[in-house]
Amino acid sequence: MVSNGSDRRPRIGLTTYVESTRFGVWETDAAVLHRPYVDCVVRAGGVPLLLPPVGDGHAELLSAVDGLVLVGGADIDPARYGREPHPKTVTRPDRDAFEFALLHAALADGKPVLGVCRGMEVLNVALGGTLTQHLPEVTGTVEHQPAPATFGTSRISLADGSLAARILGGRTDCRCYHHQAVERLGEGLRAVGWAQDGTVEAIELPGADFVLGVQWHPEQQADDVRLFAALVEASR
After folding, report:
1. pTM of the complete model beyond 0.70
2. Domains in the chain, number
3. Helix, strand, coil percent values for the chain (each to nearest 5)
4. End-to-end CA distance of the chain
5. Which amino acids are annotated catalytic?
6. What phi and psi, each to the nearest 5 degrees, are found at residue 22?
7. N or C end of the chain: which has fewer CB within 10 A?
8. Is residue 2 assigned to a domain?
């Protein structure tokens, strides 16, 4: 557990997207984030701080937060794990560069980390793992990403004794939206959660106080902030 040195609420850094965005009279590139992430951190007792994926001030950003959420989004450039891109792969290389450096800095500093969907994939690839680029070609189904902007539902089994199981119990129902998945685990990582079709849905780093990735979207279940609450508690 990382101590923030006082009784103040832990500050939780959330990575963001840089995308073309429309608001008010403007249509411009902006650093943005789906609001449910922010709301879940607040409900869990933390103070959310948005981290734009620009610049190289990773150490300075980390010094401002007590814990880190790597949020969902576009696919990781497969060149990072030695593959050619699949036709369905959509990347944001600048965001990759920022988040990989931020994650390595967080791991070196012992900061608690929660990876959500893409964030779990960042954790896996950053530690040398690989990804299946288009899951329907492996599973034969689209249950993990039924349609554009439509979340699927999955029942996840969690390994006894894992960090994920201590937080959520042996099984959990979740909202999911991903067409990629862990293929080969990164160095030191352990798979601790699986969908009913065998897809790896949760990974963690044994030996670390709190480094957990989930392939689903816990921010889409506003009535269940247990993962965010566990991150906040680990960040005290």
Report:
1. yes
2. 1
3. 30, 30, 45
4. 7
5. 117, 217, 219
6. -115, 130
7. N
8. no
CB atoms inside a 10 Å sphere around CB 141? 12
Give domain status of residue 5, yes or no: no
Q: 198-235 burial, b if ≥16 CB within 10 A, otherwise e? A: ebbbbbbbeebebbbbbbbbbbbbeebbebbbbbbbbb
**Model confidence at 1: pLDDT above 70:** no
How far, in whole angstroms, is CA 30 from its chain's centroid? 20
In a domain, 95, yes or no: yes
Instruction: Take residue 26 and report the two structure tokens written for it.
Output: 């403007």
Domain of residue 177, CATH code: 3.40.50.880
| C-alpha–C-alpha distance, residues 128 and 103, integer Å | 13
Query: Which pair of structure tokens corresponds to residue 76?
Result: 């990781």
The label of the residue with tokens 């979740």 reads: 174
Cα three-residue angle 120-123-127, rounded to 5 degrees: 145
CA gap 22, 8 in Å, rounded: 35
- Cross-strand bridge partners of residue 182: 131
pLDDT, tens digit, 9 for 90 and up, residues 132-179: 999 999 999 899 999 999 999 999 999 999 999 999 999 999 999 999
3 state SS of 59? helix
Cα-to-chain-centroid distance, residue 125: 12
Cα gap 89→135, rounded to integer Å:
11
Question: How many other CB atoms are there within 10 angstroms of residue 171's CB atom?
Answer: 11
What range defines the domain where residue 97 resides?
A: 11-234
